[in-house]
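A quick aside before the break. I want you to see a complete sequence-to-structure record at least once, exactly as it would be stored in a machine-readable document. Don't worry about memorizing anything.
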Amino acid sequence: MTTLQSNPIQAVLKQLEVLTGKEKDNSNVTGALPWGLLFKSVQQENIEAVTSMKKFGGLLKKVDLSSADIEHEVRQCIAILTQLFTIIDPKGALCRTLASILQGLSIYMHQQVIDKLKEYLTYQLNLTTMHDTQSLVCNVHKIGACMENFKLGEKCLESCLNPEVLRMYNQE
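That is the input. The structure line, written in C-alpha cells, reads:
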C-alpha cells in the first residue's frame, strides 16, 4: 500500500478481520457498524480508499451510536479510526476524510476521540528520535493534519504538546 505504513496497517487489518469475522472465510459482517466497509477501505489505495471511507462515514452517521447495545463497538470504531489517522499519510486525502468522519461524530463522543487520538499520536511522536529526519518530518505533517480544519485534532494537540510548540507552528 502506497499511502499507508505497512506494519501498523497490518495490525489494524488484523483487528478488522476479527470484527468482521473474516479471519477465515470472508463471511459477512456481524454487529451494528459497517465493519466490512471499513475493512475494505483499509485494504484499498488512493481514491478507492477515500471513496470507501466516505461511504463508511455516511453509514456510521445513520447508526444510533448512543445506543448502549453498541457502546463497545463504538469505542472500537473510534480506536480504529484514530489509529488510522495517526499512521496514514498525513498529507493525503484519506487523512482529511478520517478527520471529517471523526469530527462528524456526536458531540458526546468527542472526548473519546480526543483521548484516543492523544494516545496514538503521543505514541507515534515518542517513537521518533532526533536522528530520524524522515520520521521528524512526518510528525510535523501529522501535527499539521491535526490543525487543518480538525477541531478535535487541535484539542488533542493542546493537551499533549507544549504550548510553545503550537505557537511556533501557528506562526509558520
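Two observations worth writing down. Residues 57 and 97 are 9 Å apart (CA to CA). Residues 110-127 form the longest helix (18 residues). We'll return to this after the break.
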